[in-house]
Write a structure and sequence with these properties.
This protein is 47% helix and 4% strand. By secondary structure, the protein is mainly alpha-helical. A hairpin with a 5-residue loop joins strand 1 and strand 2. Helix 2 crosses helix 4.
């Protein structure tokens, strides 16, 4: 949840506030101590948590120059890429979540292959990594005949405003899919 909070505060323009520095330091220390372990996953390492932290830290332009931030980004990338993204074979005691293959926006605390791949690409990973390349291939294969991607998962009815329609072509999902595939050089436009 801290990664989601930081991402939203940064996107809303609070980059220079003192509490942002404290939150960044808190998250970096938490990752250093707990290594993405999650109480909701019986203290196993959580890829969803790693994705949320990575997305937030990608928004901090100085993260490449500050050792704690760079270490946190590197730790998230290393953890995410150490398991098959496509198979979602991350440590778990419960069955794999169906959400992993359901593209949605916004995601809330859950994540999917698209959000994870987008965060990795924003962190500088490319299709040269075979694990990421397999995830990009899966994303590309989900493209509809009209060149769009559909929204499989929705928080509609749980927010103040509904965002697009579930199981229909989605401008948001299409944007994130194209952005990820193009920036990773998986496809060219």
């Amino acid at each position: 949840m801290q990664g989601i909070t930081l991402e939203m505060l940064l996107r809303l323009g609070y980059k220079k506030e003192a509490f942002i520095k404290k939150l960044v330091d808190f998250i970096a220390e938490l990752v250093y101590r707990n290594d993405f372990r999650c109480k909701y996953r019986q203290q196993l390492r959580c890829p969803w948590g790693a994705v949320k932290v990575l997305k937030a830290f990608n928004l901090i332009p100085e993260n490449k120059n500050i050792p704690e931030l760079k270490n946190t980004v590197n730790k998230a990338v290393k953890f995410i890429l150490s398991h098959s993204i496509e198979d979602a074979n991350y440590p778990r005691k419960k069955p794999r979540s169906k959400h992993w293959y359901m593209f949605g926006f916004p995601r809330g605390f859950q994540s999917d292959i698209l959000e994870l791949s987008c965060a990795l690409v924003e962190a500088g990973c490319t299709k040269n990594n075979s694990n990421l390349r397999n995830a990009l291939k899966l994303i590309h294969q989900k493209r509809l005949n009209d060149g769009t991607w559909k929204m499989d998962f929705s928080l509609n009815g749980k927010m103040l405003v509904d965002i697009e329609k579930k199981n229909q072509p989605s401008k948001w999902i299409t944007f994130f899919a194209l952005k990820t595939l193009v920036k990773s050089n998986y496809i060219k436009l």
